[in-house]
Q: What sequence folds into this?
């Protein structure tokens, strides 16, 4: 009964607000969020001309590129929870500082899709979700459909990634099973994860049966099936370029490793998980990583064509981002979980013809700002208590910045790690050490300024910026409370009749 009442409390207000706003004009844009996994901005074509992404290139030229956008946490799950909640890991209602084995984001804490649906939209997320794991949703919901409805999602196709078990379920596993490919894929993936997920080797399936293309195909079906008179909001969530490094078909050979350039912060030799990698091996891994990036670009082209066919591409708000980045050898690291630029900084492009300016900005931004940016653009109402901020004023050229700093947080044991970046400097604190980098003069973060006496003032300034941020981003359930005495006095004032006006 408690679960039923909770579900009704969550769903009923959504329905009432949607009914109130369903007469919105046809000028509302369609919304497409392109959410990727483990994409470092070092490997965006506008930062690296060796990257081949023609569809994203054309889209970015029509929009605003945010060069200082950061994930709230450089690992999948907390970053994605921040997106749908508008909260930081340190906030109640989030509180996830790393990946969790059995967890479901509480629907009442995650109003993103409800806020969008309340503005008259059909909402969908197709592809990787990863704001829940395991079956923790069963604690409050009878089935997944009830959970998704409580979140405000009309359509969900969960494709967590390539299956590593022949017993895998879900839409993509069914697709592979029908093609007779599931056991082959599962064995290949299992071997990669157990042995070395960074081994650059082509997928055992062709392009048309690869998981990202499956996600794109499902997204195209969704777009094509929606009525013209009602706007849609689609989060198309791709697993790539997250390892394993298994680009399919021609994408496995698209990049020649010996022709790729590594940044200067990649050591000549470094050790990761028992593997000693040199520059040649790192370039081979990079070639496969870039192949997966170009594959996602192909999928983006599919989505663009579907929206053109729908007739709304010229009035579609597109936001392209990632949950976190990838170190790819920088500073001797692979994967994510670090505050270096390769891991904590993420792409953000906002494109909306006739509304958003074309250009680039260094205004501090957070990946979770995608949520309020959408809500503002579609004329919706943002749920109270969110710390994500709309970047639409920056994208439209109305403001230079809407944040003082961008931050990131991660950790599984105390003291937890935090990072702050303003317009020029980046600071972070780990368990026993501080880091400070001047990103204007040292974009590859080669020289730690934290221990240099001449930078003590800047170090203290960044510490204070983080402290101010933490003081300003706490959920305060006592906000608006009036003491009993004040309430009684206000009630008495309302009771007193107004004094009669003197005769004229």
A:
């Amino acid at each position: 009964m408690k679960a039923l009442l909770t579900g009704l409390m969550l769903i009923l207000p959504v329905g009432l607000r949607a009914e109130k706003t369903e007469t919105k004009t046809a000028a509302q844009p369609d919304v497409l969020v392109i959410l990727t996994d483990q994409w470092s901005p070092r490997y965006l074509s506008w930062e690296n001309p060796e990257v081949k992404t023609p569809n994203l290139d054309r889209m970015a030229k029509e929009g605003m590129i945010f060069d200082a956008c950061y994930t709230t946490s450089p690992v999948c799950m907390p970053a994605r929870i921040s997106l749908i909640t508008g909260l930081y890991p340190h906030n109640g209602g989030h509180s996830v500082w790393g990946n969790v084995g059995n967890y479901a984001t509480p629907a009442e804490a995650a109003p993103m899709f409800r806020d969008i649906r309340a503005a008259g939209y059909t909402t969908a997320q197709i592809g990787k979700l990863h704001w829940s794991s395991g079956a923790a949703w069963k604690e409050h919901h009878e089935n997944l459909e009830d959970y998704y409805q409580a979140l405000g999602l009309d359509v969900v196709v969960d494709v967590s990634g390539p299956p590593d078990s022949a017993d895998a379920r879900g839409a993509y596993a069914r697709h592979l099973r029908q093609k007779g490919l599931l056991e082959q894929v599962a064995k290949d993936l299992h071997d990669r994860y157990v042995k070395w997920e960074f081994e650059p080797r082509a997928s055992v399936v062709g392009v048309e049966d690869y998981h990202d293309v499956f996600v794109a195909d499902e997204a195209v079906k969704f777009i094509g099936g929606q009525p013209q008179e009602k706007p849609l909001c689609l989060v198309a969530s791709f697993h790539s370029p997250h390892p394993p490094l298994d680009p399919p078909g021609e994408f496995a050979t698209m990049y020649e490793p010996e022709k790729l350039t590594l940044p200067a912060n990649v050591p000549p030799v470094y050790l990761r998980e028992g593997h000693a990698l040199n520059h040649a091996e790192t370039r081979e891994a990079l070639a496969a990583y870039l192949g997966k990036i170009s594959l996602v670009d192909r999928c983006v082209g599919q989505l663009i064509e579907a929206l053109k066919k729908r007739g709304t591409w010229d009035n579609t708000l597109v936001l392209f981002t990632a949950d976190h980045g990838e170190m790819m050898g920088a500073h001797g690291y692979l994967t994510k979980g670090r505050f270096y630029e390769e891991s904590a900084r993420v792409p953000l492009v906002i494109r909306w013809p006739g509304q958003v300016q074309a250009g680039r900005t260094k205004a501090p931004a957070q990946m979770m700002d995608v949520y309020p940016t959408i809500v503002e653009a579609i004329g919706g109402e943002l749920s109270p208590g969110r710390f994500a901020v709309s970047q639409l004023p920056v994208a439209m050229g109305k403001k230079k910045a809407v944040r003082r700093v961008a931050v990131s947080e991660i950790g599984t044991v105390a003291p937890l790690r935090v990072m702050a970046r303003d317009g020029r400097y980046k600071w972070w604190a780990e368990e026993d050490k501080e880091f400070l980098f001047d990103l204007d003069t040292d974009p590859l973060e080669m020289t730690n300024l934290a221990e240099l006496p001449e930078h003590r003032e800047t170090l203290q300034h960044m510490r204070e910026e983080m402290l101010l941020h933490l003081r300003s981003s706490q959920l305060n359930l006592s906000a608006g409370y009036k003491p009993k005495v004040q309430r009684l006095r206000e009630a008495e004032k309302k009771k007193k009749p107004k004094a009669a006006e003197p005769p004229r």
Notes: Confidence is low (pLDDT under 50) at residues 1-26. Residues 216 and 344 are 26 Å apart (CA to CA). The first helix runs from residue 2 to 21.
